[in-house]
Design goal:
The protein is 40% helix and 15% strand. It is α+β, with helices and mostly antiparallel strands and 161 residues long. The chain has a four-stranded antiparallel sheet with strand order 2-3-1-4. The protein is globular and about 45 Å long. The two termini are 18 Å apart. Bound molecules: uridine-5'-diphosphate (UDP) and magnesium ion. Uridine-5'-diphosphate binds at residues 63, 68, 72, 102, 120-121, 123, 126, 129.
Length: 161
């Protein structure tokens, strides 16, 4: 049936999630990982790094003409970031819903931003906004050898197989 065809799981979809420097400073890395783990997504890559201006310039390429761009790059380079790749059915869309609105003051309670942050300029987390963008961002932040293909033992509890 057409209505339900979108429910067919694409369990290999991946997204880039990054805990931004303010999230790391505020010791929210564990809290954020916990939410994605409990939801049922699979962690396939993770590293802590000081983001370079070069990577940040590419990552936020589309925003380079925005007035907040210089401050955004300074913020993202102000300390370490924890970059992660999470995998699972519809993980790009689901993550965006879990993360909440860009403007933390508009983000709904229950979302990462809505529960843990108050202002758009310090919104603690990044999540890719489409499957295509996710592919580009994962390629920018990770080498393919840093991504692990593995199976969770509870796969059939999460997905009809
Ligand atoms: N940002 C900002 N001021 C704005 C809009 C965005 O500081 O008025 C920052 C904020 O950190 C945001 C990032 O720029 O997360 C990227 O903006 P985007 O619109 O892609 O939001 P996101 O995809 O992170 O929700
Ligand atoms: Mg974005």
């Amino acid at each position: 049936c057409l209505l339900y065809s979108s429910v067919t799981p694409d369990v290999r979809e991946r997204t880039l999630i990054a805990v931004k420097p303010d999230g790391v400073q505020r010791r929210l890395v564990g809290e954020i990982i916990k939410r994605f783990e409990r939801r049922g997504f699979k962690l396939v890559g993770m590293k802590m790094l000081q983001a370079s201006e070069a990577v940040l310039g590419k990552h936020y390429h589309d925003l380079q003409r925005k007035p907040f761009y210089p401050a955004l790059i300074r913020y993202m380079a102000s300390g370490p970031v924890v970059a992660m790749v999470w995998e699972g059915h519809n993980v790009v869309r689901s993550s965006r819903l879990m993360v909440g609105e860009t403007d933390s003051s508009q983000a709904k309670p229950g979302t990462v931003r809505g529960d843990l942050s108050v202002h758009i300029s310090r919104n603690i987390i990044h999540a890719s906004d489409s499957v295509e963008v996710a592919k580009k961002e994962i390629g920018l932040w990770f080498h393919s050898a840093e991504l692990i293909n593995w199976e969770t033992s509870d796969h059939s509890d999460l997905y009809q197989v």
